[in-house]
Amino acid sequence: MSEARAGTGGRLLTGVAWAALLFALWLWGREVTEVPSGSWTATGDVAAAGRPPALELPPPHPPLPGATPQRLAIRAMGLRAPIEGRGLTREGAAEPPPYDRAGTVAWYRGGPQPGSPGAAVLVGHVDTDSAPAVFYELGGLKRGETVSVARADGSTAEFTVDDVAVFSKDHFDAGRVYGPHAAGRAELRLITCGGDYDRVRRQYSANVVVSAYLTGTGPA
Questions:
Q1: What is the pLDDT of residues 12-58, one digit of tens each?
Q2: What is the C-alpha separation between 212 and 169, in angstroms, rounded?
Q3: Exposure of 173 in the CB half-sphere (CA atoms within 13 A)
Q4: Which of 123-127, 186-190, 201-205 has the lowest mean pLDDT?
Q5: DSSP letters along 108-142, please?
Q6: In which element (H, E) is residue 216 found?
Q7: In this predicted model, which residue has the larger pLDDT, 83 or 6?
Q8: Has residue 151 got a pLDDT over 60?
Q9: What does DSSP say about strands 105-108 and 79-86: parallel, antiparallel, or unpaired?
Q10: Do residues 138 and 125 lie in contact, with contact meaning Cβ atoms separated by under 8 Å?
Q11: Helix intervals (H) in 49-189
Q12: pLDDT, tens digit, 9 for 90 and up, residues 67-109
């Protein structure tokens, strides 16, 4: 993971990468439902590429009634983080948490709530100018590992990771990232930056995208 984090002056999805995310969100907001059959070659974050597809995964759980997400937990990362709803910036980009709350995850509130039908989007920083941030280890997640989202109605939506991929900013597959991977499921996308860090442009070359789907529920 160290190569993907070369230089800690990184910023999540700045510049051109933010534009790619905005375009993807625009498509997603228009009810993108078809996932392109082509796949892009992962670059940069080697740990997040080439997951073996042989692991048998649990069946999907029926979607839950809508409820605002409050906390994210990922046992494999030792992560517990608050979630805050964010919209779009004045420039029209999806708004991440501010850097003084780099341990917080942003939920794109213009989309589905985690546990509801469709693909809910959670965005987090990978680092700041001085330290790792909430999603620093996101690219190390593996297929079959679990992600939990505590919700305002007292329930916990439990998701199983089924894909970890890296998309370069030049080949950002909006349909695969933001469109549902299977009709009728409740899905989750965890997104941060990855690839190589450009010190001149102060941006990363790619995005790490973890895809998961609802497989269970329990008390918060």
A1: 444 334 444 544 554 443 333 223 222 323 333 434 445 455 679 99
A2: 21
A3: 20
A4: 201-205
A5: ETTSPPTTSSEEEEEE--SB-SSSB-TTTTGGG--
A6: strand 203-219
A7: 83
A8: yes
A9: parallel
A10: no
A11: 174-178
A12: 999 999 999 999 999 999 998 767 555 678 888 899 999 999 9
On whether the CB atoms of residues 96 and 103 are closer than 8 A, the answer is no
Torsions phi, psi for 213 (to 5 deg): -140, 155
At residue 198, φ and ψ (nearest 5 deg) are -95, 110
Residue 58 neighbours by CB distance under 10 Å: 12
Q: How far apart are CA 194 and CA 207, in angstroms?
A: 5
Which residue has 């989309």 as its token pair?
Answer: 111
Q: Tens of pLDDT along 122-133?
A: 999 998 888 899
- Are residues 21 and 111 in contact, defined by beta-carbon separation less than 8 angstroms? no
Q: Structure tokens of 65?
A: 């009634």
